[in-house]
């Protein structure tokens, strides 16, 4: 039971990665008029590293629910939760989300060290639109900062584990054929993390020293660069299929000299089948 709860939390965190993950993509064709709300499930398969800088990966398979809501004040869709604090032609506010799966004792670099609980990251973000299509595509800059919480799934406890955030450039909703079945997106960004966040993954205490693994204390600062892309194929207004890929590079990161860093490049791959089960009969104008 504990491992099932852990897997669910891990997948929920891993597949709600800000605006670029498979959960975050559109689930219906790019039409100006769309249902006020949509609810459904998607079956996701993802290959993720244990943590950024690890040379070991896990494959996760799990169905998860989703909800899209296109209200005047609250708008939850492919780009996250928008319009809560401020919304104008060029500027919007978001709630940015991200996460990291748990790391168990099977990780060879962390032999003899405690397991790491899954992380959930939530915080505010601001978007500045450089270009906004009618209804797509969109090009925007985003700046985000998220509070990081570790979830103890065995005792249902939580603990604060620092801050993570940074700027990104995003191009979303590109359709080679207007209102066609395919849409694509790209995102590039840099990360900055607090020393507490980096200690969670990369610190080594005197009690944890082994041959080839010396004492290490992390600082906060630059944490790496990411480049991601997605493709979405819509078959019907209720059924679609998505692909997601991301490259993370940590050259120059403040923690790159940690003995727990085994690879400076990580590659995240994911795919999902997305099924909208129910939707509102009320339609609203949705410029996304």
Give a brief description.
The protein has 288 residues and is mainly β.
Q: So what's the oligomer here?
A: single chain
Strand line-up in the sheet with most strands:
2-3-4-5-6-7-8-9-10-11-12-13
- Give a count of the beta strands, DSSP E runs of length 2 or more: 14
**Can you tell me the residue ranges where pLDDT is under 50 for at least 5 consecutive residues?**
1-31
The string of secondary-structure elements, in order, is HEEEEEEEEEEHEEEE
Tell me the CATH topology. Outer membrane phospholipase (ompla), Chain C
The first-level CATH class name: Mainly Beta
Total count of domains: 1
Give the N-to-C terminal Cα separation.
40 Å
Approximate helicity band: under 10%
Structural class by sheet pairing and helices: mainly beta
- What would you report as the Rg, rounded to the nearest angstrom? 19 Å
Main sheet: strands, sense, barrel: 12 strands, antiparallel, barrel
């Amino acid at each position: 039971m504990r491992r099932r709860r852990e897997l669910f939390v891990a997948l929920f965190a891993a597949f709600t990665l800000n605006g670029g993950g498979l959960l975050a993509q559109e689930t219906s064709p790019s039409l100006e008029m769309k249902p006020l709300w949509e609810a459904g499930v998607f079956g996701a398969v993802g290959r993720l590293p244990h943590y950024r800088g690890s040379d070991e990966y896990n494959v996760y398979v799990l169905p998860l629910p989703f909800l899209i809501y296109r209200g005047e004040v609250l708008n939850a869709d492919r780009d996250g939760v928008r319009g809560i604090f401020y919304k104008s032609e060029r500027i919007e506010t978001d709630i940015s989300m991200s996460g990291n799966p748990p790391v168990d004792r099977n990780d060879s670099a962390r032999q003899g060290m405690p397991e790491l609980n899954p992380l959930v990251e939530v915080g505010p973000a601001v978007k500045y639109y450089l270009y906004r299509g009618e209804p797509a595509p969109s090009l925007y800059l985003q700046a985000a900062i998220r509070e990081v919480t570790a979830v103890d799934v065995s005792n249902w406890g939580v603990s604060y584990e620092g801050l993570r955030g940074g700027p990104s450039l995003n191009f979303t909703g590109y359709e080679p054929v207007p209102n066609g079945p395919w849409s694509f997106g790209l995102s590039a960004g840099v990360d900055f993390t607090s020393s507490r966040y980096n200690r969670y993954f990369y610190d080594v205490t005197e009690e944890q020293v082994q041959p080839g693994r010396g004492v290490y204390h992390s600082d906060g600062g630059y944490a790496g660069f990411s480049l991601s892309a997605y493709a979405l194929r819509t078959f019907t207004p209720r059924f679609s299929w998505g692909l997601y890929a991301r490259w993370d590079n940590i050259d120059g990161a403040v923690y790159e000299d940690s003995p727990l860093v085994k690879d400076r490049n990580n590659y995240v791959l994911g795919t999902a089948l997305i099924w909208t089960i129910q939707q509102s009969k009320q339609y609203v104008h949705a410029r996304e």
